[in-house]
Amino acid sequence: MQTLLFLILFPIIAACLLLFVKRTALRYVVVVISALAIGGATIYLLLRYISAGAVYFAVPSGTVDPLMVIIEMGLALFIIYMGVKFKNYLAIALAVVQAALVVYLETTYSGSLHVVNNLFIDQFSIIMALIIGIIGSLIAVYSVRYMETYHHHHPEVRDRQRTFFFVIFIFLAAMFGLVFSNNLMWVFFFWEITTITSFLLIGYAETEEATKNAFLALVMNLLGGVAFVAALIILAATEPLSGGIDLAGVLSSGDAAVILPDIRPRVCDRDIAEQRETGSRLLDDRKPRPYSRMCGCWNIHACMGCDTPDHIPRHRKGAPLPRYRDDRAQDR
Predict the structure, then answer these.
(1) Could you read off the pLDDT of 180-205 as tens digits, one per residue?
(2) Contact present, 41 and 3 (Cβ < 8 Å)
């Protein structure tokens, strides 16, 4: 459990330290040492727990849960402030709705929001931790020289490198929290942290395009956050059946379900008719193509009848269809 807490808390300490480091050389040293510590801890997890299965840890949450709620309200106020500043009223509305749902959840179902084993680790979370700890840390190391060069070529952009690396390491801490949390309220909290850090990183340049893209990502994440809180309310209201906000309990309950899109390739009716007319057989053994010669389909369902190797890569509705040619001649 100590290693999991280290991976969640240590990046926060490194982030706070980087707020006060002005020199690039010293910043590079701090980032490299932090990256080595984080990467080493994730490798230790691999060696220690790879064959242990799912392991759950009882972490006291008496003071953590109220603190998380306070931070969530603070993040909501920050989003509202940024929405007012840049006149993005959709972000304001979503932040207000999400905050209202969180308050409703905390006040109405407070008795159902208790989880004994707030942290866990299994094989999948180890893989995710390795990706975050090694790849994420390498990105942070690379960013030191990259940001220095970026500001050298873009002197018009305000230099906020200390804030940038603070946000990077907060993002790493939140990702570790997402991976190791067995409490769905904790998962939502870390989700919110990644939402804000992504918004700040995307909008770092403070240009019109960067701000627009940052708010686009923010709105999408807020939509997911609203749906997340709504699901938590349903789980809390049906705790005896759903398992409440205990992730392991939810997955082990009989009510757990997964909705997946149907992405199986389908055969276009017009291609079937064409093949029947010509007496040719349906090419079931061929790979599905994203373009149909007969109907001009441009979709993932990909008519199986399209056997043209050099199919049109970008076909728009209303464009002329390609002329028929003998496939055997093409093969030659």
Answers:
(1) 999 999 999 999 999 999 999 999 99
(2) yes
Q: Give the pairing of strands 119-121 and 55-57.
A: antiparallel
- Taking residues 154-162, what's their average pLDDT? 93
Residues 6+ apart with CB under 8 A from 79: 91, 92, 95, 196, 218, 222
Q: Summarize pLDDT for 225-264 with one digit per residue, the tens.
A: 999 999 999 988 887 666 678 888 888 776 555 555 555 5
Mean pLDDT for 17-41 is: 95
Which distant-in-sequence residues (6+ apart) come within 8 Å of 224 by Cβ?
191
Mean pLDDT across the chain: 82
The per-residue pLDDT for range 298-309, each reduced to its tens digit, is 444 444 444 444
Amino acid type, 125 = S
The secondary element (H helix, E strand) that includes residue 57 is strand 55-57
Three-state SS string across 254-277, please?
CCCCCCCCCCCCCCCHHHHHHHHH
Place of tokens 């931790």: 129
Higher pLDDT, 211 or 308: 211
What are the residues whose beta carbons fall under 8 Å from the beta carbon of 330, sequence distance 6 or more?
308, 309, 310
Question: Is 319's pLDDT higher than 70?
Answer: no
Q: Where are the domains of the chain?
A: 2-252, 261-332
Contacts of 316 (CB under 8 A, 6+ apart): 298
Residue 173 CB contacts under 8 Å (≥ 6 apart), including other chains: 7, 8, 9, 10, 11, 12, 15, 193
The phi, psi pair for 276, rounded to 5°, reads -65, -40
| Residue 120 bridge partners (DSSP) | 56
Provide the residue type at 283 as one letter. L
Please tell me the distance from the alpha carbon of residue 159 to that of residue 230, in angstroms, as a whole number.
39
